[in-house]
Write a structure and sequence with these properties.
160 residues; Pnp Oxidase, Chain A; two-stranded antiparallel sheet; 1 helix
């Protein structure tokens, strides 16, 4: 029996891709994120004895929340802020490739090689959380932002 290595929760990369980012990946310096939960709907079926439940065909996903470091030029924060404003001004009668994007979460092995890729399809930000600025922090302490995304679906691909 082979021994399996345990996953270290600090071995991952996250980036956003698509037209919005002009063919470049938009990398956030991520300090934490969640892999969203998934729920399968159920179909209740009535019988003469009792109601039973069977698997349905509807899947819902929890939100993807990403915590990231803010650089002194605020590029990451401003990019997400502008994206949210573009979404607000988007008219459903038009289609614009810059409105939605894809997100990739790449889980790394203990040797920092790509191992598993979660691809979040048609991702968009819905909540850019407060930034706490204070004078009572130690020198060099970085400001962190947090953004919550909705998405259509996600896939999981193993590299090996």
């Amino acid at each position: 029996m082979s021994v399996k290595n345990l996953f270290s929760s600090n071995k991952f990369k996250f980036n956003l891709t698509g037209e919005r980012f002009k063919g470049n990946n938009f990398d956030l310096t991520v300090t934490g994120l969640n892999i969203p939960g998934i729920q399968l709907g159920i179909v209740p079926i009535g019988t003469s004895i009792r109601q039973i439940e069977r698997p349905g065909d509807n899947i819902t996903f929890n939100d993807l929340t990403v915590e990231f470091l803010i650089t002194e030029d605020f590029d990451e924060y401003i990019e997400i802020y502008n994206w949210m404003n573009d979404l607000r001004n988007f008219k459903q009668t038009e289609f614009d490739n810059t409105i939605l994007s894809d997100g990739k979460l790449i889980l790394l092995t203990n040797k920092s090689n790509p191992n598993i890729i979660f691809t979040f399809i048609d991702i968009f930000p819905v909540d850019l959380n407060d930034l706490d600025l204070t004078l009572n922090t130690a020198d060099g302490e970085s400001v962190r932002g947090s953004v919550t995304f909705k998405f259509l679906d996600f896939t999981i691909d193993k590299i090996n």
